[in-house]
Every structure is written in C-alpha cells, then in structure tokens.
Write a structure and sequence with these properties.
binds 3-methylbut-3-enyl trihydrogen diphosphate; Undecaprenyl pyrophosphate synthetase; 8 helices; binds magnesium ion; six-stranded parallel β-sheet; alpha/beta
Length: 248
C-alpha cells in the first residue's frame, strides 16, 4: 500500500496513509561543489543555494505542504573558513529580514531551529522577531535549522528535562514528553527527507524525528535543485510501503 494515496481522512491516516506528505525535510548539500565547478568562490554557491531555497519554499507552499524543514547550518559547520561562516550568517540575516517583512503576503511562517545561543545578538533578535511575526500568519511553516545538530538538540532537551524533573515539574519520561523538549515540539515528524549533492548520510540531521522518514537521495547539487524534483521525490516515496514496524 502506498504512503500517499488519493484517500484521506481519519481512517486512511490511522492506517499510516494520507493524501499527501505533510512535512518534507531537506539537507541542502552541494553548494560548494556547484561553485567550484564554475570557478567561483564557495560563498557564491551559498548565494545561489539561497535562491533555490526561496523558489522551493514557494513551490512547497503552493502544493499545500504544512511543514518544510531545511538544514542550513550544522553544529559542525563552524569548522569552515571564517569567510564562509560569515557569509552564511549574512545570508540568514538577509532571509530573516525578508521573511519578517513578507511572511503575511507569502503565507509562510518562519521558525529558526537550533541552538541560537551561539548566534550573534542581532541574529537572535531577528529570529525572535520572526517567531513573533509568525504567530499572526496562516500558512506553511518553514523551519530553518541553523546551528542545528540532532545530537545537540537531544542533549539540550535532556538537560532541560533533567532540570524540570529535579524541580518536581516533570514526571516520568515518555517519548511524547521527551519530544516536547525538542526544538521540533509541535512539528510533525518528517514524511520525506531529501538530501541533494550525492552523499548518502544524515550528517546529524533530525536524528530523533527521522525514525520512520522515507529518504530520497539525489546527485543534483542544491543550487540546481528544482520543483520538478520535489514532485519526483514525492512520487518515488509514494510507491514505497510504510509499515512503521507492522505487517501488511
Ligand atoms: C551545503 O553545501 C550548505 C552548507 C553546509 C552550509 P556545502 O557547502 O556543504 O557544499 P559542498 O558539499 O561542499 O559541495
Ligand atoms: C550537511 O552538509 C549540513 C548542511 C547541509 C547544512 P555538510 O556538507 O556539512 O555534511 P558532510 O560534511 O558532507 O557530512
Ligand atoms: Mg556539503
């Protein structure tokens, strides 16, 4: 039985099927190689990647996706040259300013997900403003993972839970309770995780949330990625049977 059939409604949902994916997550990889192949600096690849991100966001909104999560900067990406790191910070700033101004007309809410503590005060302030603005917007939610690492997210959640438990403010730890301490609280688990750029690894992305995600890997470098490939990922994944540990 396919994951996404024409059927929808509670019965189909209970059986693990729905009319379309609710949440797609993307590891946007390959910007550096895209730039190198053109004799350009890596930063030019990131600028081109940011344009692709804008285009893909609009497309996902138009097909009725509820959540789009993108991996933009990992907790390990600080290892890169200072110039590259600061250009990525600059792209986040530009996007945040743009999103705050246009969220309503674009019908897209923005949420920056990750450990914001290591970002500049300006980026932290803009991320908080984006969150406030998003409260009044109806539409698809875009979760931009920035200074995000799956292990770090789990570590931070465990620390918060331990403090609440010690203060008598949290009970026995269930999966549901633990999920509520993660950055992704209130976001459904991803149905599909796409990785561009040819590598077939998870690179510390959504470790907890990906338990039953379907993966779609493509050699396409992120700046070359197109809406047609979103359609293809959905189509390919819809032919797989999701069993969630059960049987047919
Ligand atoms: C992905 O592209 C974007 C970030 C990790 C910020 P890369 O910069 O990793 O591009 P490649 O993998 O070197 O081509
Ligand atoms: C993953 O890509 C992180 C992002 C896309 C933000 P990387 O390029 O950092 O991952 P590795 O080094 O190939 O595993
Ligand atoms: Mg890479």
């Amino acid at each position: 039985m396919p994951i996404w059939t024409k059927e929808s409604g509670p019965a189909a949902e209970a059986a693990g099927r729905s009319a379309r994916p609710r949440h797609i997550a993307i590891i946007m990889d390959g910007n550096g190689r895209w730039a190198r192949s053109r004799g350009l600096p890596r930063t030019a690849g990131h600028a081109a990647g940011a344009e692709t991100f804008r285009k893909i966001t609009r497309y996902c909104r138009d097909i009725g996706l509820e959540h789009l999560t993108v991996y933009a900067f990992s907790t390990e990406n600080w290892k890169r040259a200072e110039e590259e790191v600061s250009s990525l910070m600059g792209l986040l700033k530009k996007y945040l300013l743009e999103a705050i101004a246009t969220m309503e007309e674009e019908r897209t809410k923005l949420y920056v997900m990750g450990d914001l503590g290591r970002l500049s005060p300006e980026l932290r302030e803009l991320s908080a403003r984006a969150l406030d603005t998003a409260e009044h917007v109806n539409g698809m939610q875009v979760n931009v993972c920035f200074n995000y690492g799956g292990r770090d997210e789990i570590r931070r959640a465990a620390q918060k839970y331990a403090l609440d438990y010690a203060a008598g403010q949290a009970g026995e730890l269930t999966e549901e309770l633990f999920s509520s301490y993660l950055d992704s609280r209130s976001i459904p688990d991803p149905d599909i995780i796409i990785r561009t750029g040819g590598e077939q690894r998870i690179s510390n992305f959504l470790l907890w949330q990906s338990a039953y995600a379907e993966y779609y890997f493509t050699d396409t470098l992120w700046p070359d990625f197109t809406p047609a490939e979103i359609d293809r990922a959905i189509e390919v994944c819809s032919r797989r049977e999701r069993r969630f540990g059960g049987t047919k």
